[in-house]
Amino acid sequence: MPKLAPPGAGLPRIERFVASLMIRWKVARTSREEATALFARQREAILNLLHGKDTVDLSEPVLIKRLPGLEDSSRYWSLLMVLDHLRIVNADITEVIACLTSGRLTGRAADTSKVKPRPTVGQEVVAEFKAGCTRFAETVAGVGDLKTSLKFDHPWFGPMDAAAWHFMTGFHMQLHRKQMERILAGLPKR
Fold this sequence. Notes:
The chain is mainly α. It is 56% helix and 5% strand. The protein has helices at residues 13-29, 32-50, 55-59, 79-101, 124-141, 162-186; strands at 62-63, 76-77, 152-154, 158-160.
């Protein structure tokens, strides 16, 4: 097992600063429909990456080079671990959006160390991920204005309204799709 930074260690300061500016810029220029489409595209791309993979390939952790936006502690995951992380984060963001658009806060803080995957996650996570994506899409479709006055703090990027969290979900899945592509490239040839 490689020696990695602990979960929740975050990103290098300059990277976090640049990412925060980039995300805020993109949120301001991305419509609700575009954010919804980004989420849907990433969901399909992620599921396509899993297609035809056997249990061994799905469960094999692979050490990858760190991508910008990815914590060091997340570099040694399997494809199923990435999916489990996305399942957890998507569920949390679904709750945040539902709360913010209802005029209330969740009552808890976001913490990157609390959204790490189960190391022994099984293939059941594929169905759980799909169901969570459906819940997210239905929640977003069922609410009115995502430009909420209430905000919920992202652990790295500060206070964000429901529209920013909506955008962040697809953007986050895009990052982890790239992670999955690197994992696939690093799997042993069988």
